Structure prediction request, 389 residues.
Amino acid sequence: MRTKVMIIGSGPSGLLLGQLLTKAGIDNIIIDRVGRDYILGRVRAGVLEWGTVGLLDEAGAGARMHAEGLPHDGYSLAFDGRDHRIDLHGLTGKRVMVYGQTELTHDLMDVRDASGATTIYDAQDVQPHDFDGSAPYVTYVKDGVTHRIDCDFIAGCDGFHGVSRKSVPENAIQNFEKVYPFGWLGVLADIPPVAHELIYANHPRGFALCSMRSETRSRYYVQCDLDDKVENWSDERFFDELRRRLPEEHAQAMITGPSFEKSIAPLRSFVAEPMRFGKLFLVGDAAHIVPPTGAKGLNLAASDVFYLFEGLREFYGEKSEAGIDAYSVRALKRVWKSVRFSWSMTTLMHRFPDTGNFGQKIQEAELDYLTHSTAASTAMAENYVGLPY
Ligand code: FAD
Ligand code: DHB
Prediction:
């Protein structure tokens, strides 16, 4: 079998890239080690930058998002017992879209199915080969039989634990990493959100986030210990803890109900450089991870896709390699700015074991500055809605 672009990974970055390529008439195959239902069972991102919204529209996958997604013009930073609104729209003229990664992935899978493009699920032992030469290919095992697909390029869209980055020789790649000393415990429940906008709370007991998926489905998080276990957290304990970390008016208004998903995610900043190795490109979480506090991971995956798609379109349309040659540098510039923002928002909003009384005072001063200086809140809002591509 042969295709132009072989895409490893059927998460948001692989599916979005595949759909943009298909629409541009560039043949591609997506391969994933797990199945569709498993991918759709993962509960992750909830906030889309408008650039991501635009790319989903361009991919022809935006209809349900516009019908069911919730455009948000601001969010609250809660500390000292009250809300301090960051007026995203007033400060930047832009907004974000609250729409779950699960739904977005579903929509991209549906448009791909309708386009007739090939997706191979449940493939074992997927391996990229010869990407430093002129004839790359991917092998995989399915139902006990080994298959080979030849291609022009390989897009490694296979997430942080994928095979693509691991296939690059160690001396060709540089990793930058920061691991945070806490995790996020998240629950999903069919209860109305406590407020119309997201609440990011800084509290002496730790960070909390109130987000949502719809007017009737809430997504809530609390900072927890890294070695904590989901089994330690009954719904009752979770909601008691969440309430304690919120301003009184929200604590009192909070409606609780049984959760149907509960998981703990560790927090990490990670960047691999470069993002291109011959005919192999790393895209999205395969190349970088950010702590979720700034809501940037999925959006960075989308901007990587944008740069790579532009490069591939130029390559096939105009026989120019300029775009693919520039991919890594262009993508990394934006990646590092989001890595910086995600790190700074994480540092601002969480309790660290070694914060101490000095660190505590600095955090309080920064929160006060951010919420009372138009210049500072504009900088925060500009990063949150997404820097330009
Ligand atoms: P993935 O979604 O990880 O997809 C990779 C795919 O590759 C998977 O389907 C996997 O099965 C497949 N794969 C892996 N290994 C192999 C292999 N060896 N062979 C074949 N296939 C393979 N981001 C935001 O922008 N906003 C948010 O609000 C936000 N909130 C988050 C909250 C939480 C709790 C978490 C955990 C993440 C959040 N993120 C957020 C981050 C976001 O979910 C990720 O950045 C996003 O999933 C990246 O997409 P991806 O397609 O690059 O990788
Ligand atoms: C959600 C997750 C985030 O990390 C964030 O910053 C905002 C929202 C969410 O899951 O809804």
Notes: The longest strand covers residues 174-189. The chain has two domains: 5-70+96-176+268-346, 180-267+351-385. Residues 5-70+96-176+268-346 form a domain with the FAD/NAD(P)-binding domain fold (CATH 3.50.50.60).
